[in-house]
TrEMBL record:
Pfam families: Macro. Residues 1-167 form the Macro domain. InterPro entries: Macro_dom, Macro_dom-like. This is O-acetyl-ADP-ribose deacetylase. It comes from the Bacteria.
Amino acid sequence: MALIEVVQGDITREDVDAIVNAANPSLRGGGGVDGAIHRAAGPRLEAAGAALAPCPPGDAVATPAFDLDPPIRHVIHTVGPVWRGGVADEAATLASCYRRSLEVADSLGARSVAFPAISTGVFGYPPDHAARIAVDTVRSADTRVELIRLVAFDRATHDLLTAALAT
């Protein structure tokens, strides 16, 4: 079973084999975490992502990490659901993002993975519900990943993830 940690910080500076990008279907970069990862990884990330696009919500694909600092070797791109009030199977799609990302990490041989809070930014997913889904899904995942780090950009998200992990 993987060790699960919650930290607050910049996902592009995590000491892990792979980081997960909360991407849009084009995989070409955007705002929030997606934009930060693209800026840190450099312009080759956009070209690599575009070659794999489109990526449907709930799925995940990987690219090299390019200009990100080692030990980060891979960026796993996953497309979360846009919140539509909970009537469009958003919870299942969000859980799939975490599961599929860990499956991709396993296929890459990654032993440590850092996740952002997927879909809680411009996609509008309620952060408290998203934290519970993130923790429940990674906790129950069948994976060879040894360390799963949930990286919160702000204190409020950190506190929600920490509370979800404590239950």
